[in-house]
């Protein structure tokens, strides 16, 4: 056995040295403040959710966005001069972030939410630029080349898309400066509509996949719920009853954004990434501002009645009557955590009763969570990680259809969506994306790697799993 | 060579190690835990339904020590040649992050205060001659009042469910009347009594005993602990002992401490790191760090530190002290030395009652920490004078959930046929209609029961194995027989159609092939006298003052209660005194 000696420097110390070593020419104090501010703006903008792959170097890019015509990859935005944005001037950086135009003049795909970032202030853009130049380590690796074949790979048609759908910086900034009831709501609007780019997922999109409204000033479509992403349906963030945030208090929203969980529900899908990389790092003041702003948004569907708990399903189950379709599957596989009354044990296990996901007229999220499971990583303010198991190997498509029908019938949208007729059919229960014919253990391993990558400090490679499943992919739909 | 070092090394990522690592990082130290097993997080490997595979779990020992790399040798008496413990059976040490704290069941007691000064109390009550020849009866040199804040803290971290008796001197509930006074209520209400426990409660009360619901580190409701970690409620699925808890309701270092600790940049966890020895300076008075084997690369690594916490499983602590030359090895002939002295176990037997066929106990239902107990025959709660033995046993129904394979291996019990229809009928009757009552007793320390290094067998790394010399002694056999005789009236009161009383018998020897308990203790005990204890009242080595040894290895006697609550309280107690006294002025905290 060889003999070597091991020494430790704290990670913090090492990081501090790296930062200092990278900015000898600057006035350290002012620059450090600006770097810190820029880091905060990057977190508020959720940059790393797309530009850092799990297990990869910060901002090294390479996250895959799977499109029907091929894959594109997020770019390296570290200050590496060859592979990143090290040669960008601040003006070029601002143009890329706010207008979607690369240094070389080519258009960015609107997977990059520049129509929202157009609202970002000069001061935030400046801080962000300083942070990327001085606070981020250069990553000398190229992101994978995009796999879209010609002629779809041509980016010039994007010029027209931008001209029609992306706001000019001037018009966006003018909208930012509109009148708000309170300074907090103004701040909340800035964060939600601008850097937070919540609308990228939570607003409906038009025929060219443009967001139908980019701010609260352009109609109640804004944040009224988006199209499915990775099989999940973003809910309304407006004061819509049942499918929106009408039943969430300001504190509920703040708790959700800072920990990914509250007494009403838990995050899953892309929202988990948004909380993990982004909102959990925001100050309590900013989170309250966002919550106050969201609570100021009038419902998009004002005539929906408030949700009322119906005890009928629970009463039947608790009296031993599991004759309803899917009830037995529910009792055997779901009730231990979500309870026979659907109330769950929040925050560990979220309630199904009253949950907007259950009441949505689109069952996609519910189906997808039952099929694929969900993993909530530990957050700074809520260090516990929780997993919902994947049932795709344990239950047949018929059983999943049955149990989703039961859940939605018991605690969800009492009017079942038309396309479901008398309930969900197995044909709706597709194989989870990428699962194919993998063995159960392979899938378990994959899922476990994915979760373990998200458990703080739990050192296991998650990269492969993520690439295979496309798990960490875009929170934003991609224009093709 | 080494230019930087970690402030503190913690050996083992079980309860004791995780508590010490949390406390020391809170004190501002950089802390490295070295754990020889795998990393484990309940949301990764312990999730539903991955975790509740009985074959992979309790039967094939997923969470237990890999004996092919290192084990102990065992003999009953000093005139025998010890042989290696090659198959897990009598006791089940854990391996991997969480240690035995991941696979435990969750019974979470404090301590019977009389047990902390058992020698003093026995002598005061019965005289010095009451102590049998060859019994090393000793005090802990710490009082319940001193430990109380740390029992309280541990319960709040564990999310313990229980019913108090007195709080601040006033009766506050229907809990154990023999339990010591509390400064605060349990963080969660007691677990519900399953059917078998509820009828035991009635029967025991009718007989004149004082039944109470067990304090359990199984959460009776969802809970958030002081570290901000969240637990779900127990659903009595029965997969506690031997498993991670997919409901996040059985307390474990993995669920209750490590999620918070892993976020601390001052904390480092190195897994697959088998510590070979604690390194000492040239005069052997100070530890300079440890040498461990990186099991991934098969390279030895030296890690320097100012403070070394030995907090592995009980006998690994003793083994490591012997391998490192910390303190003087115990010599049973000369009666000198302390390392390996007072090795103790527990005296546990199980009795079974079969109930009429209309009464369903459904043994698959259960929670590892829940049940109903009586303390009437524990500790010094009864008059030992006419009985002539030291020690006692709590008695309980602790229906922890009997899994199918375990039930089949255990068989129907009693005089049932061993095959055919009669066997099947008996299995069904036992699984559906029986209940078990345990006498979970103390075990005293004796001069010729001890741990030392084996002269013959070595582990995979070329180091001598630890040798156990252990068997049952007359005092403990008679204690067990007496307490079990007190179960018989309960059996009658229960209306059992038949019952079988389990006891030790005179001249029984320790049988390693049958599971008894993993509650091993002693070998590096705490005390006031460096001639009879390895560590002082703050769990600091008398010989190497920057080494603290935390765990059940500190117990001078095997107590009737389950040890984890005491281990956790001692860990917080030691950590408190390290933080408030030792770190300000490193050196011996008690002058020998």
UniProtKB/TrEMBL annotation, chain A:
Magnesium in keyword set: no
Domain of life: Bacteria
A single MF term (Gene Ontology): heme binding
The record's free-text note on cofactor binding: Binds 3 heme c groups covalently per subunit.
Cofactor names: heme c
Any single Gene Ontology cellular-component annotation: plasma membrane
InterPro entries: Cyt_c-like_dom (IPR009056), Cyt_c-like_dom_sf (IPR036909), Cytochrome_c-type_DH (IPR051459), Membr-bd_ADH_cyt_c (IPR014353)
Subcellular location: Cell membrane
Residues reported to bind heme c 1: 47, 50-51
Keyword presence, Heme: yes
Annotated region described as Disordered, given as residue ranges: 417-480
Residues in the signal sequence: 1-28
UniProtKB keywords: Cell membrane, Heme, Iron, Membrane, Metal-binding, Repeat, Signal
Residue ranges of domain Cytochrome c in the record: 33-136, 183-298, 321-411
Binding site for heme c 2: 198, 201-202
Pfam families reported in the protein's UniProt record: Cytochrom_C
Amino acids binding heme c 3: 334, 337-338
Protein name: Mono/diheme cytochrome c family protein
Organism: Gluconacetobacter liquefaciens (Acetobacter liquefaciens)
Organism ancestry: Bacteria, Pseudomonadati, Pseudomonadota, Alphaproteobacteria, Acetobacterales
UniProtKB/TrEMBL annotation, chain B:
GO MF term set: FAD binding; oxidoreductase activity, acting on CH-OH group of donors
Source organism, top-level taxon: Bacteria
Domain Glucose-methanol-choline oxidoreductase N-terminal as annotated: residue spans: 231-345
Occurrences of domain FAD-binding (ranges): 5-43
Domain named Glucose-methanol-choline oxidoreductase C-terminal: residues: 455-571
Pfam families: FAD_binding_3, GMC_oxred_C, GMC_oxred_N
InterPro entries according to UniProt: FAD-bd, FAD/NAD-bd_sf, GMC_OxRdtase_N, GMC_OxRtase_C
Keywords per UniProt: FAD, Flavoprotein, Oxidoreductase
Record keyword Flavoprotein present: yes
TM region(s), chain numbering: none
UniProt entry tagged with the keyword Amino-acid biosynthesis: no
Family: Belongs to the GMC oxidoreductase family.
Protein name: GMC family oxidoreductase
